[in-house]
Amino acid sequence: MAAKASVANLPHLDTLRQHLWQSRAITVVYPASMDSTLKSLSTALHPFKVRMISAEQAQPEDLKGSLFLIGTPENNPWICNTPLRPAIHFQPPSILLNSQIIPEDAVAFLSFYPNPHAPYFPLFLATANDERQLREALARRMREGFSAFGWGGWQYEVYQGPYRIRCGKYHPTDWTLLAERQFQAASTVVAPPSAACFEYHWHGDSTNRSDFRSFVMACDQQAAAVLAFCDTIWHEASIPVHGFPDMEAKGLALNNTSPLQFSIQANRIDAIANSVYSTSWLGPQNQFLLRRILGAPRFPLLEAGLALTFNPSWQKHGLSYWKDRLAHTGLLPGLADLEAFWADEYQSPFLRQLAAAAFCDFLLRHWGKAAFLENYANWAPDVAALLSMEPQWQSYLSENAIMPEPREAGTVPYLKGFNFAHEGYAIYNGYGSKLAAGMLQEQFSLGANAVAIVPYSYMRSPNAPQPLSIMNRAGTENDESVIRDLVYARRLGLQTVLKPQIWMGGGHWPGDVRMDNKADWEAFFRHYTRWIVHYALMAELYNADVFCVGVEFAQATLIEPDAWREVIRTVRAVYSGRLTYAANWGPEFEELAFWDELDLIGLNCYYPLSEAKQPSEAELSERFEQVLQKARAVSNTFGRPLILTEIGFTSTATPWQQPHLDGEGEAYLGSAQLRCYHIVTQALARSTDWCRGVLWWKYPSYPTLGGEGHTGFTPNDKPTEEQLPELFGRLPE
């Protein structure tokens, strides 16, 4: 047995990660009885080289290095013989995690814990009292890949079935529990029976119980509509529906933050029941009932589409409104392309759902209800059959078309605030979390009246077109997290700017995007339009005050201005608020040709203010005045007000020299950042007629990012933050 390492000898968490990535190898010690379950583990642990050794054959020397122990205390003796106190220990028949007994039917995981057999390497552990429960939990995790085994952030977790009931982290140096990073699921309350179809479980306290009651009522009303449509009575067992009070609670429990998810195979529906999402996202749960009553159709989108037609408030306004609202846009497909459109994961989920639901509504009108139900199970149309209905489909789409009406223009309010950065990817610390809500409240308390929400997608290459993903994994800037923060910001009274951006790896940025030929440019804009329209629809749905159609495509905008005009016109067809584009400082901003298509000129302002290490106030002020003169000239030329969609300075000794650099590796100097904020604010306070706002880069989604020693852009917990109320107060209203 290995001797337990003392606290003084335990490595830093970063050391464990470093050794794992340097060796790129993991040894898995598991019971032979689980061999069939773990066949795909090597794939799940890619890119690491995996060495599988049965517990019966393992020797002490096999346990050195990065180690993954799998099994129960009975079928893998190495688990009990590896000293992991205080994290985990065994008092047969109980398993104790952090001195708390886990439920008998639960599964416990440890991730990135010092390996007592080789303390500078990480240990991973998956254990339970019941081998069947362990098999099921591992199967779920292997489907999710290596991030599910610890790279996602949690160092200990306890699951009961699919639900994570406890999770947390340890201190990275002394390995004590971090109290502020421990989460425990609320107890579950079974709601009194309401309708026969569903059995409701509430995973929250009494605070949000009224939201849950509204959710239950809506589900029951839709279920009743399904039964009436099918002219049947429900005779089967009730389907479990689990409601959660917010995105964070559901995400921590299920590693899925979608407002509504379901599994017909697992016989389970999980949903967020609160006023942010209300009943707008309901409808898909009706697929359960349709499957049980009508069976699975050969044309799958019939089930998905028909289910949505029973929610009269789908996406707030219902199917008919959105069909009519988007009829003139060309965003809904022809029938020959309908199935591929519905199955395309890169299409807006909103448009995919709308297309399927509208098609079912069309068929009900075209065939009548009796023929629809008769054809439902076995209809599998070929292209010719679909094309034969195309004229009627187009007539259906356009019969009550609604042209968009711009919102009342009025005076552009002066925006003063931040780009709000999704800095945390562990669900509890990014967009949609309680911490993020607190940081939005903090910005408001500091005097901000506006905030930019910044979801990202990514491109692998600046010279090759590719579809742009809409983020959907828990912990990313997915739709539900962006929506929560848009809604919460508006409830605070903040003006909201939705500003989607593209992230590029390999040292590239959107300004590098440049295609080699016409076909590639056309493909790029096809992908980009599809992606940006999704967020324009979100901005329309959730009343964002300003929508940004692009950020820093410094070459693409100058080379292909007409293509950008088409992007803007497509966006304007679905979004009725103010539009801007965030141009990079320099040639793009100064030479961009399509400002006349927009309502606001946007400048990401990182012009250098001095090359000197210790410039005078006069020099910095004069240089920034010169920047504003350039900006005002563009504003005057196009007759549009301007906002600084980004401006920022790092907390380093000379942030005025190259303001766009992130400060990594530099020495910290918070007072230099504050100095730049004063220079900018002083100048902007005098520029009230043509400049209508400033959105600083940037403010984080959780409070511990920043502070003394942090050299990045955020003013959080630095000298600048203390003076933000005064600085914002000096700007126009």
From TrEMBL:
It comes from the Bacteria. InterPro entries: GH, GH113. Residues 708-733 are annotated as: Disordered. Pfam families: GH113. This is GTA TIM-barrel-like domain-containing protein.
